[in-house]
Amino acid sequence: GNTVTVRNFATTTRSPIVIKQASDGFPLIFSNSNEYVMRATKCANISCSASSTTFILAGSTVDDFDVTIPASGLPIIAWVGTLDPSTIGMFLTRCLNASCTSYTTQTIYNGYGLSNYLTYSVGIKLGSQGFPVIMHYESTGTLYVDYFDEIWKYHRCSNAACVPKAAVVTK
Asked: Which residues are bridge partners to 132 per DSSP?
């Protein structure tokens, strides 16, 4: 196999790291820094010996994320964290190009104002119609101390833009 160090992820990255195949066939690596800032590294060749990195969602706090790439080739990122001081919850960021140097973000679920609200663990896939299906976990407990009202929320988008907001099913 071929091993190329793109970036020393061991000292600058916290979980998760998501690797996808971009529309040009080369790797696209999404990672989260120790400062909770997401970045996208777009490889310029199959061995990733040449690449460029873009910081995404600067000013936001990204706790967890997942990525899917639909037929358009433009990545869709589901993430949980803090968009701004009054918007805490689950979000959908759509890259406007394959390298994600330009993007839009929408709030899918805002838990701001809820007592001890925590949200983490998110996953995204494309449903049978090609629209995002998102699952995230939330709790109103204190992280690592107590968990009460643990809830998995399933969001099913009814169109590619996920507007109006996704239908929510609580499990």
From this structure: 126
